[in-house]
Fold this sequence. Notes:
Elements (H helix, E strand, L loop, with lengths): L7 E6 L4 H16 L3 E4 L15 E3 L18 E5 L2 H5 L1
Parallel strand pairs: 1-2, 1-4, 2-3
Amino acid sequence: MTSTPSRRILLVTHVGRPEAQQLAADVATRLIASGVGVCAPPDELVDTPLAAVAGVEASTPGDDSDGPDSAAEGCELVCVLGGDGTILR
């Protein structure tokens, strides 16, 4: 029986930096093994090492009736990997 993790983290990674992509996969693997849910923006799960990690889910922003879309909805932490410009984009 599989249970849904009660804690969830959003990983945001610089898609142009291979070392950041591999680090994200390593971080996700450790978090999932510890029982923490991991999600990432859907465009960051295309042909990346993070996409290959079992258990990583695509974040699903809320619809317009819930207010502004937020990939971090339901997450208690956002972890940004890749440098200054990663979150700015």
